């Protein structure tokens, strides 16, 4: 059997990303797929992007990756300036989704949803909304649809797994900005890659403690935009939109 580490939402947090890379290595996993939002919020967009490009065989595009080159607001432009035009362009050109077979499962990976990198789906949303995660992507033709039975995504920074009418929906959580608990999150898929035969398959959720205060110091030294909100998210795992 083969194993794939699925990571998402690194958000320029080098301390968390290095801890997750070390954990992946210790477990002997060599294949890594990234579901986007490599940059934004955190102080080390360049280092994280270059490291992810080195270690991840598959990278898809998140909403921050797309917006970093489009928005002039400081929350985006600060990171874009550090990254430089070439990296900003590469982030914006990452693919929207990735499909593959594993132990007879038809697996689709997206950042937020098959509709858009901006279409957010939470684990507590309506059944109709969650079932929409199995819809076709905008670029699919009717006669060549992939029709996934397993969908993995990031974006909401909340790790979970649900079974819906015989299909599996899972969220890998966030490496660099977790909002369910303060430890970095990722998943490991285990099965036979490319195999159409229904065989043993597993999804394992991993939580990785990391040096949060190191990440805080790095953010303070870099003077990242929205610094106080970012630090509170790292220390409490409470989304800034829910903070007083």
Task: Write a structural description.
- The protein is globular.
- The relative contact order is 0.19.
- α6 (212-222) packs antiparallel against α7 (227-236).
- The chain is 30% helix and 22% strand.
- The model has no long low-confidence stretch (mean pLDDT 95).
- β4 and β5 (105-110) form a beta hairpin.
- By secondary structure, the protein is an alpha/beta fold.
Briefly say what this structure is.
The protein has helices spanning 14-26, 45-55, 63-67, 74-92, 127-131, 212-222, 227-236, and strands spanning 2-7, 31-34, 58-59, 97-102, 105-110, 150-153, 160-164, 167-171, 184-191, 202-208. By secondary structure, it is α/β, with parallel strands linked by helices.
The coarse overall form would be globular
Instruction: Report how far the terminal alpha carbons are from each other.
Output: 48 Å
H/E topology pattern: EHEHEHHEEHEEEEEHH
| Uncertain spans | none
- With helices defined by DSSP (H or I, 4 residues minimum), what is the helix count? 7
Largest sheet: 5 strands, mixed
Give, in spatial order, the strands making up the sheet with the most strands.
Answer: 3-2-1-9-10
What is the typical, i.e. mean, pLDDT?
Answer: 95
What class, by secondary structure content?
alpha/beta
State the helical fraction.
25-40%
* Beta-strand segment tally: 10
The fraction of residues assigned to DSSP E strands is: 15-25%
Tell me the Rg in angstroms.
17 Å
């Amino acid at each position: 059997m083969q194993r794939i580490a699925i990571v998402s939402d690194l958000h320029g947090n080098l301390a968390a990303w290095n801890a997750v890379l070390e954990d992946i290595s210790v477990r002997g996993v060599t294949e890594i797929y990234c579901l986007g939002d490599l940059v934004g919020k955190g102080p080390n967009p360049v280092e994280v992007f270059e490291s992810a490009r080195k270690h991840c065989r598959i990278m898809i595009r998140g909403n921050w990756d797309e917006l970093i080159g489009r928005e002039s607001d400081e929350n985006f432009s600060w990171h874009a300036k550090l990254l430089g035009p070439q990296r900003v362009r590469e982030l914006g050109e990452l693919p929207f989704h990735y499909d593959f077979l594993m132990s007879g499962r038809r697996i689709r990976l997206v950042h937020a949803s098959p509709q858009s990198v901006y279409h957010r789906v939470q684990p507590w949303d309506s059944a109709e909304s969650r079932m929409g995660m199995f819809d076709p992507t905008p670029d699919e033709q009717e006669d060549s649809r992939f029709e996934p039975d397993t969908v993995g995504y990031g974006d909401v920074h909340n790790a979970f797994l649900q079974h819906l009418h015989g299909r599996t929906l899972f969220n890998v959580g966030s490496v660099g900005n977790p909002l369910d608990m303060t430890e970095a999150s990722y998943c490991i898929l285990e099965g036979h890659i490319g195999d159409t035969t229904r065989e043993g398959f597993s999804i394992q959720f991993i939580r990785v403690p990391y040096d949060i205060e190191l990440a805080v110091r790095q953010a303070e030294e870099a003077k990242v935009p929205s610094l106080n909100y970012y630090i509170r998210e790292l220390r409490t795992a409470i989304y800034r939109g829910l903070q007083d």
